[in-house]
Amino acid sequence: MRELNAILTRCLSIAIVDDDVSVRVGLQRLCGAFGLAPVTYASGPDFLDDLRSHHPRVDCLLLDAHMPDMAGLELHRTLLAGGIEIPTIILTADDALGGENRGNGSDTLSYLRKPVTSDDLLRAIAAATGGRPRQPE
């Protein structure tokens, strides 16, 4: 775990989008405990509104696969259609979702199966970001 912590730069900004408040808070606390900078959103539209109005730097997205307003994969596709490529990790309990969409041609998308361990989550964030913040566009 120490080696993984050393890989992750402490100033990585992690956007967590999940409609379940307990999951959002849990992921926020976990990311914060490891020195990451988490920001939470209750839905895809909330994240998109903040992205349009405040232009926050987001180094990695953690998305719930199934949300009522906009599913995680739909949010990811919306971002790509707008020319925004953010390393994205979709958290899912659905084996089929990850398997059928892994070949979507996007290097910015990966899947983690729920429930996710802290080690698996940190490894996925490190792999998605290279352990470094995104460069300003």
Offer a quick outline of the entry.
Helix content is 43%, strand content 18%. By secondary structure, the chain is of the alpha/beta class. It has one domain: 3-Layer(aba) Sandwich (Rossmann fold), CATH 3.40.50.
Summed up, the domain count is 1
Q: What Rg, in angstroms, do the CA atoms define?
A: 14 Å
Count the helices. How many? 6
CATH architecture: 3-Layer(aba) Sandwich
What is the end-to-end distance? 32 Å
Range of strand content: 15-25%
Portion of residues within helices: 40-55%
**Mind telling me the CATH superfamily name?**
Response regulator
Task: Characterise the protein shown here.
- With about 140 residues, this protein is an alpha/beta fold.
- The protein has a single domain (about 1-130), classed as 3-Layer(aba) Sandwich (Rossmann fold).
- The chain is about 45% helix and about 20% strand.
- The chain contains 6 helices and 5 strands.
- It has helices at about 1-5, 20-35, 45-55, 70-80, 95-100, 120-130; strands spanning about 15, 35-40, 60-65, 90, 110-115.
- Strands 2-1-3-4-5 form a 5-stranded parallel beta sheet, with helices on both faces.
- The longest helix is centred in the first third of the chain and has 13 residues, at about 20-35.
- The N and C termini lie far apart (about 30 Å).
